[in-house]
Specification:
237 residues; Dup_hybrid_motif; 32% strand; EC 3.4.-.-; hydrolase activity; hydrolase; Cell_wall_metabolism_enzyme
Length: 237
C-alpha cells in the first residue's frame, strides 16, 4: 500500500514509499483503512488487525450535479440553517451537517502525529491525515462555512481553509495538494456541507496523489481528523 504523507511544521508533504518505523514517543500507525459509509473502522498495525464499531454515516459517491445552484440560493440537499452559499456543485450527498470529505472506501496513508521524516525536508510531526481516494476524486466541504484561504503554496500546493461554526465554536478544515485550478472557491465565499472544494491531486511537496486533511478547533491548532470525523460525521447541528 502506497504511503502518502503531508508535512506539519513545514506544511504538508507525502511519500509513496514503504511505511517507516516511527522513533518518537507516540509512534503513528503505518497505515489505516476504513470505509466511510460502512460499519467498521479497521486499523492495521504490524500484522495485527483491530476492528471496532464506528458510526454509520450514509455517505454515497455520486456524479456531480449537472447545474450549480444560482448565486444566493441554498442547495436543496442542505438544511435551511446552512448559510446562503455562493453556489457550487454538491459532490458528497451523504446525510448530516458534518461529512467525510470524500465518499466510499479510502486509505489513510499517513496518520496524524509523530512519524519518521520521509524526506530530508519533511517534518517528523504530521499535523493532518493523508487520504488516498484516487487522483481526481472530488473533495466536499466537511461542513458549511466561510472560505478563509484559497491559494497555492510551495508545500501545500493548491489548498483551501474553510472556517466553520460547530457547536458554537470555530473549527477550521484544511484541504491540501489539490489539482491546480480545480478549486472554484475564493476567500470570503460561503459554502454548503459537501460542496466542491477541489480535486485530489499531487501538487506542492507531494510524491503521490492524496488529500492532506487537517481539522483545527479554534482555527489554528490541528487535531487528529480521523477520530474527530468518526465521532461527528452524520450529525445534525
Amino acid at each position: 500500500m502506497a504511503l502518502f504523507t503531508a508535512a506539519a511544521a513545514l506544511p504538508a508533504q507525502a511519500t509513496t514509499g514503504s511505511a517507516a518505523v516511527v522513533s518518537s514517543v507516540a509512534p503513528a500507525a503505518a497505515g489505516q483503512s476504513f470505509t466511510a459509509s460502512g460499519l467498521a473502522l479497521t486499523v492495521d498495525r504490524d500484522g495485527y488487525t483491530i476492528t471496532k464499531p464506528a458510526p454509520k454515516p450514509v455517505i454515497t459517491k455520486t456524479a456531480p450535479a449537472s447545474q450549480a445552484a444560482p448565486t444566493g440560493a441554498t442547495p436543496a440537499s442542505t438544511k435551511q440553517s446552512v448559510p446562503t452559499t455562493t453556489g457550487g456543485t454538491i459532490v458528497n450527498t451523504g446525510i448530516g451537517d458534518i461529512r467525510w470529505p470524500v465518499a466510499g472506501t479510502i486509505t489513510v496513508s499517513s496518520p496524524f502525529g509523530p512519524r519518521s521524516a520521509p524526506c530530508a525536508t519533511c517534518s517528523s510531526i504530521h499535523q493532518g491525515a493523508d487520504l488516498t481516494p484516487g487522483a481526481g476524486t472530488p473533495i466536499g466541504a466537511v461542513a458549511a462555512g466561510t472560505v478563509r484561504v484559497s491559494t497555492t503554496h510551495p508545500e501545500y500546493g493548491q489548498y483551501v481553509i474553510i472556517d466553520h461554526q460547530i457547536d458554537g465554536r470555530l473549527v477550521s478544515t484544511l484541504y491540501a495538494h489539490m489539482i491546480f485550478g480545480s478549486s472554484p472557491l475564493r476567500p470570503g465565499d460561503t459554502v454548503a456541507v459537501g460542496q466542491l472544494v477541489g480535486l485530489v491531486g499531487n501538487t506542492g511537496a507531494s510524491t503521490g496523489a492524496h488529500l492532506h486533511l487537517q481539522v483545527m478547533p479554534g482555527g489554528t491548532t490541528p487535531i487528529d481528523p480521523i477520530p474527530w470525523l468518526t465521532a461527528n460525521a452524520g450529525r445534525t447541528l
